Amino acid sequence: MTRKLFLYVTIILLSSCASVEKYNQQISEIHSPEELHQDVDYAYKKLKKLHPDVNWYISKDELDKKIDDLKSELTKPLTTKEFYKLFAPAITSIKQGHLSIHTPVKRQTKKEIKGKGKRESPFNSLSFYTSDNKLFVKKVFKGDTTLIAGSEVISVDGEKVNDLLDSFTILHASDGYNETFMPEFVGSRFGFFYSNTHKQKDSILLHLKSEDSLYNRYLYAHYDKTKASSEEGKDTVRVEKKKLSRSDKKIAKETQKKIRKKNYKYGYNKKTKEYNRNFSFLESDTGVSIGYLKIRSFTNGGYKDFYKESFAKVDSARCKNLILDLRGNLGGRLVEIDDLYSYLTDKEYVFIEKSKMTGRLSFLYPYFHTESWPTKTFATILSPVLAVYQIFKVKKENKEAYFKFKYSKLRKPKSDTFTGKVYVLINGESFSASSILATHLKATKRATFVGEETGGAYNGTVAGVYAKVELPNSKINIRIGLMKINAPYTIEPDGYGIKPDIPIKSKINNEDEELQWVIEDIEMSNKKK
Hints:
Layout: H1 2-28, H2 33-50, H3 60-73, H4 80-91, E1 100-102, H5 110-116, E2 119-120, E3 126-131, E4 134-140, E5 152-156, E6 159-160, H6 161-168, H7 181-188, H8 190-197, E7 203-210, E8 213-220, E9 222-223, H9 226-232, H10 246-266, E10 268-269, E11 274-275, E12 277-282, E13 290-295, H11 304-316, E14 321-325, H12 334-341, E15 355-357, H13 365-368, H14 373-381, H15 383-393, E16 394-397, E17 400-403, E18 421-426, H16 433-443, E19 447-451, E20 461-470, E21 477-485, E22 502-503, H17 513-528
Parallel strand pairs: 13-14, 14-18, 18-19, 19-22
Antiparallel strand pairs: 1-21, 2-9, 3-4, 4-5, 5-6, 5-7, 7-8, 10-11, 12-13, 15-17, 16-17, 20-21
Helix pairs in contact: 3-4, 12-16
């Protein structure tokens, strides 16, 4: 029995290594025009089958022409990355911000992972932002400590940043005709677009400018075992760890438990070392109380205790002014934004309408079309249960399938809802769930909006559950939203975000002009009373 088990495991490992090598070879090959045409046809077929509103912002005839023009351009063999640069603009012409296209990444064999550890992109060590078509280092997470945050990136491996940013803006799209999303998104996701369009390398040279000084720095790929193995080879004296007493161990355990609980409540991001959810009271020259909610993302960890605690603090302080900062918040969970909104309204409400899909079983596609065999097996075993579930959750109306979220029913506000004045700070990267929340606050005239137009559309988006489609030859991946999600409010013209009542464009300095305007407005209003 033991021998059979050993033989089985050996076969699995060998086949795994072989499949990795085969995959890596395929993604590095040059693909014939016939193969590229097959990929285009396959992608368009899946897009029409899965996306609930392909022609929301582009007519069928226009999109058909885009696809035909793309195929007519594919007359010579191309690498996957060369193909991606032509393919992505055609597919993203549907103007759906949640639709994203990824080029395949070289996979590591088990031997490589065992030797060096899992690889991280060189760009994982820092974050970027853009302003006036210039790229700046926002934060340095690890690596070279002499790399200065705030530095302008002039070139990357000899390529001008301006040219790179211009080429990246056509590889993705915002929701509709919005023009504030992509300039910011290509900055914050610069590493993603660079990796999609360039050969994988373990070192990348940045040419930077800090004030009047020019300097160069390398970014290096990180392997999680490299540091440990290099440390072992050093001729150093090892310091034995101090043995903890039973009481010390208990204290350490309780401390770690408190940290985990806090990280869960506030949504700690290990990479950025920041909390997603933050609340504080801001200082005012006139002494007026101002609550400040900075929500970086509606993801990660719990949220109920955080909002309950935050609004309890607002109530205890008799605070009548609240600032909700959604700048840079790309969205997240419906359940969280619904919970937050229930503290900001005193009326019953319907949060979203029924979500349109292309078919009753569309939401099951990701589970049956995945590379994960455990997920496929689990979905197959539970298929009878899932079939019953979809009968109750998905309804056909006028031959259209609609998924019924609980948020489509009448909802009640919290008993301790905030009734004071609300200000919302927004910019181009206020997207998806942020925009759905902002739509409610704008439509009900519940808040004053300050900043720039949101990247997410006022009239809704296509998101919810996603299907991952891999093209057969180039192995390019497309992420397609399966549900059309929108609040019960619309505006004309369609295809634009929530626009600010007080337009203020962020500038490159340490001053937060949007926040400062709100504080001054609150102080001015307080003086008039």
